[in-house]
Amino acid sequence: MKAKLLIFLLLCSITFSLNSQEELELQAKEYYDLLILWKSYPDMPGLSELLSAAESRLGINQVKIDQYCINQSQLLYEDALKIWQLETKTEIQVLQAMDLVTESICLNPDNIPAIKLKDVMLFEKGGNRPIIMSSGLRGLYERAMKEYMDGDLYKSFSTIRELSNNEAIENNPDFIKLKALVYKKYYDSLKGF
C-alpha cells in the first residue's frame, strides 16, 4: 500500500507542466525516486508503463513525432501566440497561453517558435530566464543524467564530453551543474588507480 501511495504521489509530481527550471529539477528527482521504486518492485502492475510515461515526459526516451503531433503543436503555438499578443491580458489568459505553449512543446519538442515563445513568456513573467534546449540536446542531456544516476559514470562522462562540443548548451546552468558533478566523480574515481 505504501508503494502504491508513493507511485501516485510521484505520478502527480511528474505530470505537471514544466514552467520553471525548479519544476524540471523536482521532476528529475521524482523520476529518480520512481526508478528506485521500479528496481525494488519490478513486477508491480503498471509501474513499467508509468516509468515509460515519465521518461517520455522528461525527454529521456524520445517519442517519435508524427505529422498529426506536428500539426497540433503548430495550432497550439498559434493559439498561445494570439493570447500572448493581446494588448491587455488577465492572469488567467497568461496561464492559458503558458499551458498552450507547454502542450505545444510536449507534442513537438522541435517546435522552435514555441520554445522561443515560452522563453519570452517566462522572461516577461519574471524570474530567471531559462535556456531551453532543443529535443536533441535535451535527449543527450537527459541520457547523461540517467547514466549518472544509474551509476554508469564512464558513459555519462562520455556523453557530457559529447555535449561539451555544442555551443548551444555550454552556458546552460543545468548542464554546467551536471558536468561538474560527473567530472568530479570521474576524476575522483581515477585517484584510486
TrEMBL record:
Residues 1-20 form the signal peptide. Keywords: Signal. The keyword Signal applies. The keyword Signal applies. This is Uncharacterized protein. It comes from Spirochaeta isovalerica. The lineage of its organism: Bacteria, Pseudomonadati, Spirochaetota, Spirochaetia, Spirochaetales.
